[in-house]
Amino acid sequence: MSAAAVERPYGKRPLIAEANRLMERNPGYRVEIIGGQILVSPPPDGSHAVALTDLMLPFVAAGLHGPDSKLVQGISLWLPTGTEDYAIPDLSLVDADYRGHLIENNCYDPVCFRLVLEVTSSNYRADLRTKVTAYAEAKVPVYVIVDRKHQRLHVLTEPAGDTYANHRPHAPGELVTLPDTLGAEVTLDVAAILLAGRPGSGD
Known about the structure:
Uma2; 203 residues; 4 helices; Integral membrane protein; single chain; Restrct_endonuc-II-like; Nuclease_put_TT1808
């Protein structure tokens, strides 16, 4: 469904070794390598987690967590942007045989990813810019961003080089039907998702 990841030379992985050390020292933090740079994201707030759970429900209801595909949180994918690059989307829809696409360091070939989804936190710029390029170059067919900062839901499709040919932001009040290439029809209620992700006084 997507292009294969860049060929990886065997040998030392200094950035991956440092990323793994950071994860061990900072439980709950997400550590990624994109464009040869280590990105560290703090643990998400409660509203982030609620929005993510709410987002899973329409995918499950559509039967996409079943024999042909799986809905998974925090699964890593290799990126073609560097020899040690990988990203960890908040949520991914992958082919059911994804286990056969393990590359290394608990990361999987982007060929088995149908969709990646990010719910923004304090590092929203990475989701809106850096990861657009990374996921497009990995040829992930659909990238969805829940932009809590600007109260928009972005749907990016048709990866072309280092960007997506189709990038549509959606506002509260809209119902968004995702591409049927996912394997089933999934419709997202923008207002409900953004409301679930709105940080509360305790977050």
